[in-house]
């Protein structure tokens, strides 16, 4: 859920205090009721979508193009989620598996960059054409897969405007009592501002799955044990070392290296990490995907955050002392001398272990978690640029970088969207597992494809029996070929709800979601959810009863890739 802090600050009256001051929940509830009484409103459409992600946009566009009325109720101010929130170096996998509205999005990005005026800070010829395995700019197929955040947001806004889609922004679901159910269907939901939205079909397109959860749909948070679905890469993964996001050299976790009596450094768990293969409550680490630049005219120095504490980054100093120098490997270039900067190495932008309560937390608590992530990441940047413990070669190189002044201009050039790599995951009609991702199963009722690796970021940082620190949970298992995603993975069980579709918090295991969770896939599943919603309305039946052959025919007609 993007811009959560901005939204809550705008609605500070909801709680009766500025956002950084806390009140008990009872006080919040009283204020909510008062505001609802002041702003009674009812909106109605064939389909109502809750969320502001890329999936929310493609769902809405598909519904509109199929001739039905649609309303987007977005807690976000800015549409597009991570796609417009800093993740411009798209995790595509096999691009031939991306069709429909998702491919149209990347075509529109390509169109934008065909204009000379789009290249404000560099020439197109200077940018080059490097991507992940295939070209970032595919002129033959008229698509571009790597882009600036502001360009992505404008493409989404153009789609909304062209299709005359009504969007209510900064509207937050009343998660306590806002969802009205009758005979196994959602009839309406109400937001904290008092607006009520009615529809024949509903879509939860949030990263958190708040509408789904409030409607009583069964879901899971955390990692399942491998035994649940007969998997290999789910559950606790102590001893599994993939990518480069682990301590490759023995590194002491103690304030005085080697002295366990001196206390443990910040952000290291002293709990038992658990037994390999067992399930737990832990989830992938979150971070912000920063848009940075080394161009002086467009560069803003990294700010020093409130309550800056250099001790939180002592582990990074020890990583450098041990000789590592690969910090810059995920400064992925996007147009106009900018980056999509992602986590890399054992101590980086991922705020490991500090998000476990986020999926089910109150809005107030989520705002605190997001602010904490922001302060951690800003502190990391400030530490690298200023602390005398950082090697001179790293520090001098880092000082050439800063935030891009022309991105996220209403948020101090900081991304609106925290990277919610996973939160709730529905347990629906069909659970996608690693067996589907590896094509070991012949997945039924395909509504789209994925092809990215099963990619989980670290979930905990712990102390090994030998007394050294290590990260755990990072998995990067390649997918040999594109795989099918089942229609059953975006719909609840029939006995739970008949008129809800969930294209983001899909029904999948933790490790399968590590592949499914890519933004192009969310766009694909959003379009398919919109298609099913409209067809269910036309057929006057629940989403579970729709004949798959009819869904399939329409998806193919609209350019979705269902198999290769």
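^ Assign residues to that structure.
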């Amino acid at each position: 859920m993007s811009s959560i802090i901005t939204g809550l600050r705008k609605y500070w009256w909801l709680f009766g205090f500025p956002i950084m001051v806390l009140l008990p929940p009872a006080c919040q509830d009283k204020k909510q009721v008062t505001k609802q009484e002041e702003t009674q409103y009812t909106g109605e459409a064939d389909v109502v979508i809750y969320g502001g992600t890329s999936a929310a946009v493609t769902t809405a566009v598909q519904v509109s193009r199929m001739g039905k009325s649609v309303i987007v109720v977005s807690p976000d101010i800015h549409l597009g989620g991570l796609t417009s929130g800093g993740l411009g170096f798209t995790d595509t996998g096999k691009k031939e598996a991306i069709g429909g509205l998702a491919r149209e999005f990347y075509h529109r990005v390509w169109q934008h960059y065909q204009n000379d005026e789009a290249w404000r800070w560099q020439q197109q010829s200077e940018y080059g054409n490097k991507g992940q395995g295939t070209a970032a700019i595919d002129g033959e197929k008229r698509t571009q897969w790597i882009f600036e955040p502001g360009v992505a947001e404008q493409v989404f806004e153009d789609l909304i405007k062209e299709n005359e889609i009504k969007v209510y922004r900064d509207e937050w679901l009343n998660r306590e009592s806002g969802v009205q159910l009758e005979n196994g269907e959602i009839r309406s939901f109400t937001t904290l501002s008092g607006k009520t939205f009615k529809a024949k079909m509903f879509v939860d397109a949030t990263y958190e799955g708040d509408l789904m959860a409030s409607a009583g749909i069964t879901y899971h948070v955390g990692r399942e044990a491998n035994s649940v679905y007969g998997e290999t890469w789910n559950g606790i993964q102590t001893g599994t070392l993939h990518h480069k996001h682990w301590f490759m050299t023995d590194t002491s976790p103690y304030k005085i290296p080697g002295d366990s009596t001196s206390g443990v450094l910040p952000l290291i768990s002293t709990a038992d990490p658990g037994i390999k293969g067992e399930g737990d409550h832990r989830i992938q680490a979150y971070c912000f995907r920063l848009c940075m630049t080394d161009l002086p005219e467009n560069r803003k120095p990294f700010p020093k955050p409130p309550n800056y504490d250099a001790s939180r980054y002592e582990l990074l100093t020890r990583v450098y002392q041990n000789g590592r120098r690969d910090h810059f490997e995920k400064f992925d270039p996007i147009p106009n001398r900018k980056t999509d900067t992602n986590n890399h190495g054992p101590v980086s932008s991922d705020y490991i272990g500090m998000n476990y309560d986020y999926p089910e937390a109150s809005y107030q608590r989520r705002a605190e978690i997001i602010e904490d992530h922001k302060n951690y990441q800003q502190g990391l940047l400030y530490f690298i640029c200023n602390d005398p413990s950082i090697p001179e070669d790293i520090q001098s190189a880092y000082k050439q970088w800063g935030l891009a002044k022309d991105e996220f201009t209403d948020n101090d050039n900081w991304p609106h969207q925290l990277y919610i790599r996973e939160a709730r995951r529905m347990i629906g009609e069909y659970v996608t597992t690693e067996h589907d991702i590896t094509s070991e199963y012949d997945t039924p009722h395909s509504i789209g494809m994925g092809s990215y690796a099963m990619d989980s970021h670290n979930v905990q940082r712990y102390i090994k029996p030998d007394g050294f620190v290590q990260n755990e949970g990072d998995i990067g298992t390649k997918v040999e070929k594109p795989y099918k995603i089942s229609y059953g993975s975006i719909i609840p069980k029939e006995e739970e709800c008949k008129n809800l579709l969930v294209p983001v918090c899909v029904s999948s295991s933790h490790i399968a979601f590590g592949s499914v969770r890519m933004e192009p896939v969310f766009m694909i599943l959003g379009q398919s959810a919109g298609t099913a919603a409209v067809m269910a309305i036309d057929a006057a039946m629940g989403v579970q009863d729709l004949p798959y052959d009819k869904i399939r025919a329409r998806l193919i007609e609209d350019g979705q890739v269902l198999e290769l």
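The first strand starts at residue 41 and ends at 50.
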